[in-house]
Each structure stands twice: as C-alpha cells, then as structure tokens.
Write a structure and sequence with these properties.
The protein is an alpha/beta fold and about 350 residues long. About 55% of the residues lie in helices and about 15% in strands. The chain contains 17 helices and twelve strands. The chain is elongated, with a radius of gyration of 25 Å.
C-alpha cells in the first residue's frame, strides 16, 4: 500500500474509492469518487460510540465483526470496476482507508491511500485558493451579462471559474426559478477546487463578483476574501440594454414563478413597488416590471460596491455583444500587464 500526498494523488486516473459512510459521501466528496463504504451510517455511529465511550480496542473488535461478512462482496464490487489499481480515501487517511486497502491488496489489487484523507484534501483546497489564484473580478449591475461575458472569455482561451454554474444558481431571488437542487456547500467547495487545480498560477483567473451566498451555497471564506481584495472590472452598460437582456432571459419563464421571486424581495423592494411589479408581470409588461425590480438590485449593488476596498476600473460599453466585450477586456488586461 502506497500513501500519497494530495497533489500526487490526482496525477492518476485510476478508480477513486471513497470508503466513508454513505452520509459522509452525500455531504461532500472528491469529484469522480465512487462510494465504496466500509460501514453503513448506523454501523459507523455504533463503532464511533464504542470508541468514545469504551475503548479503541472495543471499537476495532466491533468493526471487524461488521466487516467480516462483507469482505467477499467488497472484493466483487472492486472486480466489477475493471481495474487492478485503486485510489482510496477516508476522513483522515487512517484506519478505514488502510483497512480496505489491506483487503484489496490481500486479494491482489494495488492501492494508493490519500495521505491525511478527505480532511487533508479540504485543507489543500483553501491553500490553493489563498496561495495560487490571481483573480480578476467581473463586476457590474444586474443585467450587464456578466455570465455571458465569462463564457466568451473562456471560449477565447481565458481561465474562468463559473461560480454560478457550479452552484446551480444565478445568485438572486430569480436565480433558480424552478428550484432545482443545488449541491451542498461542502460539495460546492469541492467543485471549485476541481475547477482550480489544473489552472496556470501564472495567468489570471476571471470570476464574477458574487455575494458570499449563491442561493444556498456559501463561497469558501478564503475565496470570498481573495475576491474582495482582487482587482475589479466594473461593467457600465445602459439601463435599456440591461432591461432588454433580462426580459430576453426571463421572458419565457412561468409568470407565477416570477411573481413568487418578486414576493421574496417584498420587504426590501417595498410593498407599493412590489405590488406594481407583480401587476405588470401578470399583464405581461416585463420591461416595466424589470425597471421597478432593478431599483432594488441596483441600490443593493451600489451600496456593496461603496464598501469595497479593491481596485476598481469602470469600463463602459454600449451595444456591444459579449464576445466583443470579452475581446476588449482581454486586450485591456494584456496592455496593463505589459
């Protein structure tokens, strides 16, 4: 059995087995991992209770008692994966991963165990963000097409982390009208790490100026802090264009869902404005409704921007498509670096 540090652990494409309990796996796991639990959730709780209340020896005996009947089925499950080599991890890279590795190697497989386990992997996530990412933050009022511009930047070869895509939410009351499932915050962080680990640390990484919460997903504190202190490019686009973009994006949405989303910001938008916006949505007057709703989002954004201490450069565009804007931003950044 070979114990491998985090960075080397990912220089391999062999099957990755998460030997933690199903509940631990569901909460968050390394991208691409296969759930290969040594214990069920109930069994893990049983062994853990014995460890805390009685002794390490009592917990080990109970663990062996539980594992014994499973050994053949675990070998057969490993055989079904059509590989002779596996990577394994548990929470700390301790007894669970080493026990499964021992079993598989006894049968004839080759195994690598992640040094420090999933806990070490999570620590490496924050270190990578804090020490290696050089961010450029794309900022601007609602409707400035930041997501589309990020996509265009990526298509032109720039390094991009699309936080909204990873979170499964567009970051506002209207950001997930169908209420589709988002990843857990823990898994959201893992998705971010997977997006980061192959980036070139000598080149900038573009991200959108998100709030700390994107729907139900919280940004890693280290990434949020880095974002707040990194250079911001603020997109200045005319109100009429922003409204047209929003109507194009939400025009086919169920009016009832738009009404629900508007109700969620009633307290901050104000009762009179909320009632008027809802009336206009029902009547199909989406442009006029969007203009009212933007008063809330614009006020919020401008206050947030006034609190920032980062270097901000405002860049104005009128009538430009995302691809053209992306090209201008790339040229501008290259000239500043040069």
């Amino acid at each position: 059995m070979k114990v491998v540090p985090t960075y080397d652990f990912f220089n391999d494409n062999t099957p990755l087995l998460d030997v933690r309990s199903p509940a631990e796996f569901t909460s968050g796991h390394i991208l691409g991992a296969i759930s290969f639990p040594l214990f069920t959730d109930v069994e893990r709780a049983d062994v853990g209770t014995l460890y805390k209340q009685m002794s390490r020896e009592a917990a080990i005996k109970r663990g062996l008692e539980l594992i014994g009947p499973k050994m053949v089925s675990m070998i057969e499950q490993a055989e079904s994966l059509n590989s002779r080599t596996f990577r394994l991890y548990c929470w700390r890279g301790g007894m669970r991963s080493r026990s499964v590795a021992w079993l598989l190697e006894t049968y004839g497989f080759n195994c690598q165990v992640l040094e420090g386990g999933y806990k070490s992997y999570r620590k490496t996530t924050n270190e990578l963000i804090e020490d290696e990412l050089k961010l450029i933050v794309l900022s601007g009022l609602t409707g400035t097409r930041k997501t589309a511009i990020l996509k265009a930047l990526k298509e032109k070869g720039e390094q991009v982390i699309d936080l909204e895509n990873l979170a499964g939410h567009q970051g506002s009351s209207f950001g997930n009208l169908e209420n589709t499932e988002q990843p857990s915050t823990e898994q959201f962080h893992n998705l971010i790490f997977d997006s980061c680990r192959n980036l070139d640390s000598n080149r900038p990484v573009w991200i959108e100026d998100e709030s700390f919460m994107i729907g139900r997903c919280a940004l890693p504190q280290s990434l949020y802090n880095l974002k707040e202190s990194s250079p911001h490019i603020v997109l200045d686009i005319p109100l009429e264009e922003r409204i047209d973009h929003l109507v194009k994006g939400y025009g086919e949405a169920d009016p009832d869902l738009l009404v629900e989303a508007t109700e969620r910001i009633r307290k901050k938008l104000g009762h009179e404005r909320t009632d008027k916006a809802i009336e206009l949505i029902v009547e199909g007057e989406l442009k006029r409704a969007a203009e009212i709703i933007l008063k809330y989002y614009d006020k919020n954004y401008l206050y947030s921007r006034s609190e920032k201490k980062a270097n901000m450069k405002v860049v104005s565009f009128k009538g430009d498509q995302p691809s053209s804007i992306a090209s201008t931003l790339i040229k501008m950044n290259y000239e500043e670096v040069s």
